[in-house]
Amino acid sequence: MVKAIAVFPEAHEIRLVEHPEPQITQPSQVKLKILEVGVCGTDRHICALAFGTPPVDSEYLILGHEALAEVVEVGEAVTQFRPGDLVVPEVRRPCNDPDCRACRAAQQDFCYTGSYTERGIQGLHGYMATTVVDEARYLHPVPAELRQVAVLTEPLTIAEKALVQALQIQDRLPWRTGSATNAEPGRGLKAVVLGAGPIGLLGAMLFVTAGFETYVYSRAQAPNEKSAIVEAIGATYLSAETTSVEQLTERLGHIDLVYEALDAAPLAIEVLHNLHRNGIFIFTSGTDPNHPFHIDTANAIEHITSKNQVIIGTVNAGPATFQSAINHLSIFQQRWPQVLPALITRRYPMEQAKEVLLKKPGGIKHIVSIA
Ligand SMILES: [Zn+2]
Ligand SMILES: [Zn+2]
Q1: Where are the beta strands (DSSP E) in 42-166?
Q2: I need a labelling partner for 289 at 20 to 30 A (CA). Which of 1, 115, 134, 261 fits?
């Protein structure tokens, strides 16, 4: 048996369980010792029973999708991994529909049918367990020197996918064509990151690295631990408490790209209203459907059309994005050695996982240490 943190939706319960030890049953599989798992809003929503689905044959769902693991055993067809290797697993697994072009092209983050599965979220057990078995093709190798920070890979993939999408879309402008292959495609452009949680801060690091003049716009007044990180990476922190959206726009002159990771739709829409001509706005967080708010849609549409703007949503991330996130973590570590470790506020033993899953402590990123 292995130890795992599970949610029982029927019984409205979250607890440490003894789970049968998974075994390698296919030559393409890998047995993993889980080292660490990050906790995020998705886990807390599952624990609040807002969503999340156990596997069909189980009354509970093992939580956790932001994992770092060590290979302990490989199936006989696995040649790319050896025991001792560090790996980060992908979250989403393809649907079975032969007509789903996204899943058939191994881009299940774009799945058309919605009948994909996600480890720790929808239909598959997650990684808050001492031992897990996974298919080798969903695992990405991590250099040993990233052992302390690679648990941040999955949240960084959200920004990686957003940036790739933005660059591909901005290739519509003939004078920017090919920007996706440029080392600093953001040179001369201004990006605003909305929100200073882990997804926002990792996004800001990525945008700075891509050459954008980067601003992080968030609620809390500076100075605080998040504004300190923003300043350390050469970006600028502005608080919504002391700087209105109008003042933000005035200060920047124009906003070319907005990366929303705020979970506060009214403020996001206000910023959208101030997006520059040919600008792009990327939504990554949901909003609370129980708190609808008013938008002057006629005015919004007029802005979007007359300024050639693009608004996109993005969720999850594909295989290439995991690899680029791991590469960027190495770059961030070299460029700002203090910053990634400072994103991790606290590590909790499995026995205390419940307290960090049920209420959001202060700080930035909270991690459950499994081994
Ligand atoms: Zn997450
Ligand atoms: Zn699909």
Answers
A1: 61-62, 66-74, 86-89, 92-93, 117-119, 123-124, 131-135, 139-142
A2: 115
